[in-house]
Amino acid sequence: MILEIWYYEVVSIDGDYANLRRTDVDSPELKLVARALLPAEIKEGTKLKYEMMQYEVIG
Fold this sequence. Notes:
By secondary structure, this protein is an all-beta fold. The protein has strands at 5-14, 17-22, 30-34, 47-51, 54-57.
């Protein structure tokens, strides 16, 4: 089984959700993610790594 690692940037926060943009591929699409699944300290511009079904702040 190959585990992928994806990188995102928080584009905007709207209440209980955040819009994330992939930064490791060229894609204009945003992913809507519940804030309960994200680290509490995120803000717009925060860089995230998604690995093994968990988001981690990397910058």
